[in-house]
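Tokens in:
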């Protein structure tokens, strides 16, 4: 039976939860599911936003600033969706606690899930250093957050030439 439990952005597992109804399927994460329990989450859906939905970005800071009430999340039409992002982050935290998650593997660059790098709030495609709302809340509560680009495991070839996940 798989060992540690990780929350994973649902879009990375191939579920159509992206803002445009697509996914960000990450085959290496699907293989990781043989070694760990992966709990799919989409904080934006958990917060009550539909799929598809307008793209959103954090304006005036990052997820930590949103948690402090110093920044807002707005969609591309200028609608404030901060409340939905906060509600979704709280639901993700509740799931992490319920399942005793060892961490979360979240979508790089997302205004909810981004860890270390997010879009800059101008809807121009530019990025800046910072965390998304859910990543910030999980980190605040001591839950490690990783992206699909930086997993909590490393891959190495075994003597037989097969790639294996190492903890």
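Residues out:
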């Amino acid at each position: 039976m798989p060992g540690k439990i990780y929350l994973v952005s649902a879009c990375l597992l191939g579920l159509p939860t992206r803002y445009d109804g697509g996914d960000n399927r990450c085959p290496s994460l699907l293989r990781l599911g043989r070694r760990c329990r992966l709990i799919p989450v989409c904080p934006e859906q958990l917060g009550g936003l539909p799929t598809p939905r307008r793209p959103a970005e954090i304006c005036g800071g990052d997820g930590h600033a949103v948690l402090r009430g110093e920044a807002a999340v707005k969609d591309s039409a200028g609608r404030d969706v901060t409340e939905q992002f906060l509600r979704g982050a709280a639901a993700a935290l509740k799931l992490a606690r319920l399942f005793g998650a060892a961490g979360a593997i979240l979508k790089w660059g997302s205004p909810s899930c981004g860890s270390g790098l997010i879009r800059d709030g101008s809807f121009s495609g530019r990025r800046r250093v910072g965390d998304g709302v859910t990543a910030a809340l999980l980190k605040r509560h001591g839950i490690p957050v990783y992206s699909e680009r930086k997993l909590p495991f490393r891959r190495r070839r075994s003597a037989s030439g097969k790639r294996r996940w190492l903890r």
